[in-house]
Specification:
This protein is of the alpha+beta class. It has helices at residues 44-53, 99-123, 140-146, 152-163, 227-236, 246-252, 266-273, 291-299; strands at 8-10, 27-28, 37-39, 61-69, 82-91, 136-139, 165-169, 194-195, 198-199, 202-209, 214-223, 259-265. 29% of the residues lie in helices and 22% in strands.
């Protein structure tokens, strides 16, 4: 079901995503509340609460257009202060909390991206980039073993250039070097679950961008935390104080449904499908003054 998304939420309820504590939200006051109102960074937790409050049955879910402001973002060719995503969330069963089900949903999303690119290339012959018909999967732990001397970003570039499209499983939990592949919040994706000795029930969809010659993340998604994984992850990152928040209390008391969800970057996807060099070619935002001068010199665009 398509729903309308909030642009801002009341703070101190646990619904707002602090992006693992790396960014501070834009906030403001209103006359009738003591708490701050905060512009959303994402809707990861809000969606799950809505599915619970409106009693969505298993197998049903919602999607929405999310608009966010991330004022502390390090802007570059794929990152903007303005974030636009198709956000989605779906109710699942306890038995579906496994890698097999996660892969099934990833394949469905990727199939839509693949078919869209096929149609666009057929309609506009000047578009040349292609995608493999099937997406491949690899655990972040295995990826580290293959390229132990590379940084996580370098590993992403290597494997994505090789495969064309890949879903990296298990992002947030520590790898062999004691560091995560990338930082993830403790309270929505389940990155602690161990299945056959490998961490994580979440991950990212990456495609090879022939324009920038780099991997491009189009979606971050995953099976959400249950009571056990939430407690583990909060303890692991020393965030047990969050248990006093309404959202976290509802998970601990099993009063929220088990879900899977994620976000698909709208501008990122448009950038890839239309083979653009910079996200500013497909969205309106703010950039350093010399951004487009550099782009014009490098790519002869804008």
């Amino acid at each position: 079901m398509r729903v309308s998304a909030p642009k801002f939420l009341v703070s101190n309820k646990g619904l707002l995503d602090d992006l693992a504590g790396t960014q501070t939200p834009v906030s403001f006051k209103v006359k009738f509340l003591k708490e701050d109102i905060e512009i959303v960074h994402s809707l990861a937790k809000w969606k799950r609460v809505i599915l619970g409050d409106f009693k969505f049955p298993v197998g049903k879910g919602l999607y929405t257009d999310m608009d966010a402001i991330r004022k502390d973002e390090d802007v570059d060719s794929t990152h903007s202060v303005y974030v636009d995503q198709w956000d989605w969330e779906k109710v699942i069963t306890k038995e579906q909390r496994n890698i097999k089900f996660l892969k099934k949903i990833v394949k469905q999303i990727y199939s839509s991206i693949y078919k869209t690119k096929q149609k666009l290339n057929k309609k506009y012959p000047n578009l040349k980039q292609t995608l493999p018909k099937e997406i491949q999967f690899i655990h972040s732990l295995d990826l580290q073993k293959i390229y132990p001397k590379l940084t996580p970003k370098e590993r992403e570039d290597k494997i994505t250039e090789k495969l064309g499209a890949v879903f990296i499983i298990g992002i947030g939990g520590d790898l062999l070097d004691g560091k995560p592949h990338d930082i993830r919040a403790t309270d929505y994706d389940d990155w602690s679950t161990i299945e056959k000795g490998k961490p994580g029930l979440n991950g990212d969809i990456l495609v090879w961008d022939s324009v920038s010659k780099k991997s491009l993340e189009l979606s971050s998604m995953g099976i959400r935390v249950n009571k056990e994984s939430l407690l583990f992850q909060l303890k692991e990152k020393k965030e047990m104080h969050k248990l006093k928040l309404d959202y976290h209390k509802r998970i601990i008391s099993n009063k929220l449904p088990l879900t899977i969800g994620g976000g698909i970057g709208q501008s990122r996807l448009c950038m890839f499908l239309l083979e653009k060099a910079h996200i500013g070619e497909v969205q309106s935002s703010v950039w350093p003054e010399n951004t487009f001068k550099k782009l014009k010199n490098k790519y002869n665009i804008l």
